Amino acid sequence: MTDETKPEGEHEPDGGRPPPRRGAIIVAVVLVVVLILVAIGLYLASRPPPQQVQGMIDTDTISISSKVPARVKTLLAHEGDAVRAGQAVAILESPELVASNHQASGALVSASAAQARADNGDRPETIASIASLWHSALAQAD
User: Fold this and answer.
1) 97, 68 in Cβ contact below 8 A?
2) Rounded mean pLDDT of the chain?
3) Which of 8, 64, 112, 129 gives a 20 to 30 Å CA spacing to 26?
């Protein structure tokens, strides 16, 4: 038969073979993907588990920090002692911090004295003098 006598859409490419069906191609691709996934799973399952080792590590360096700069006055914990988080391990001394504390105490005393002056007013003699001036000004105004 010639191409002219065949109905449209029935052409046989590649020397008379029928065209491959899409469903067969999709099934083949899915089958290949499944086989690859199974091979990867078998490879991962056949690997030995990671080794675990238990033991103790001896260290020589310990990092401790404080919130203020100071010098160590007394150690409360010694090598080999068990300590917990938040437990004091040393007593610190800081001359700068003590001086700053004394300065703040002096400022508090000064502020308290200024507050007392503001609450009590000036000396009673000054108040009496100003009151007499005010009364005399009132008398002159009448």
Assistant:
1) yes
2) 82
3) 8
